[in-house]
Amino acid sequence: MELGLVGLGKMGGNMRTRLREAGHTVVGFDFNPDVTDVPTLEALVEALPAPRVVWVMVPAGDPTRKTVEALADLLGEGDLVVDGGNSKYTDDQAHAELLAERGIGFVDCGVSGGVWGLQNGYALMCGGSPDDVAKVQPAFDALKPADGGFVHAGSKPGAGHFAKMVHNGIEYAMMQAYAEGWELLEAVDLVEDVPAVFDSWRTGTVIRSWLLDLLVNALEEDTHLEKLRGYADDSGEGRWTVEAAIEHAVPMHVIASSLFARFTSRQEDSPAMKAIAAMRNQFGGHAVHAGPPAGGDAG
Predict the structure, then answer these.
(1) pLDDT tens track for 110-165
(2) Any idea where the 6-phosphogluconate dehydrogenase C-terminal domain is (predicted)?
(3) Which positions are annotated as active-site residues?
(4) Digit-coded pLDDT (tens) for 235-260
(5) DSSP bridge partners of 36
(6) The domain 165-284 belongs to what CATH superfamily?
(7) Fold for domain 2-156?
(8) pLDDT tens profile 198-238
(9) What does the alpha-carbon distance between residue 161 and residue 165 come to, in Å, rounded to a whole number?
(10) pTM
(11) Which residues have CB under 8 Å from 163's CB, separation 6+?
(12) 27 — phi, psi (to 5°)?
């Protein structure tokens, strides 16, 4: 298929490559002149045959909102917009309504896989009408892993991003559990090789996971995580998950606690947060904060 891709950063750029390797034609636009295929969003739309499919991979909030509004003016009836960023599910509902007024379809798609998606494939959680999802299915099939990794979460706008939001909330909790276990092992004088303990858990145990693999990778590079400051950002989806739990009266003790732990990391140099920061950097290429130099403050 032929499609446009707006946003060619860490995720979007690799997605363009994976789609092209699968034989699809991708016209990419980005404000970075070093990576863009066309100079403007208008040029991207003009380069695509009708009916057009344009996939948006830009930061959530205003950047996505402005991009969707611009596409609403540039696209026509029968065209389709896919929001593959980390938008809040309530934004999807507003975007779907705006585009529907012009006869333009909309699919929201939560994408997981980080910087490893090019090699391993991306987990995709989408929302939208079956007909609209079918129009993008060839791209979904190219982006997902060979086995599984794709779900049409629901026909209402926002279903995909809601599923991805809960996924990220669970991710918060899993990382927090690994990080607290690492901190306790580091604190006692009984265990002599903490990285080896974590490595041993990667096979045959009920807590094995890709996140555990990534933490072992980080510990191999920095045994005591001394190069990192115990500070971890949050992307917003953990907050939205807790907000949705409150709205629907769903108990969410562990995920809420893991979100608050990240807030704690901004008040002091938490050892557990070094592990969180290391794992986020491993799977998503997220920025890390270096430790302070001797006698100085962290930069």
Answers:
(1) 999 888 899 999 999 999 999 999 999 999 999 999 999 999 999 999 999 999 99
(2) 160-299
(3) 164, 171
(4) 789 999 999 999 999 999 999 999 99
(5) none
(6) N-(1-d-carboxylethyl)-l-norvaline Dehydrogenase; domain 2 (1.10.1040.10)
(7) Rossmann fold (3.40.50)
(8) 999 999 999 999 999 999 999 999 999 999 888 888 878 99
(9) 6
(10) 0.85
(11) 110, 125, 127, 151, 153
(12) -105, 115
The residue assigned the tokens 């041993």 is 200
Structure tokens at 40: 């403007």
Tell me if residue 234 falls in helix, strand or coil.
coil
Give residue 72's identity as a one-letter amino acid code.
A
When the pLDDT of each residue in the chain is averaged and rounded to a whole number, the result is: 93
Between the alpha carbon of residue 33 and those of residues 18, 20, 30, 39, 43, the distances in Å are 21, 20, 7, 8, 14
Tally of residues, the chain: 299
Sheet holding 80-83, edge to edge: 25-29, 2-6, 53-56, 80-83, 105-112, 123-127, 150-154
**Cα-Cα-Cα-Cα dihedral of 158, 161, 165, 171, to 10°?**
160
**What does the domain layout of the chain look like in residue ranges?**
2-156, 165-284
% of the chain at pLDDT higher than 90 = 82
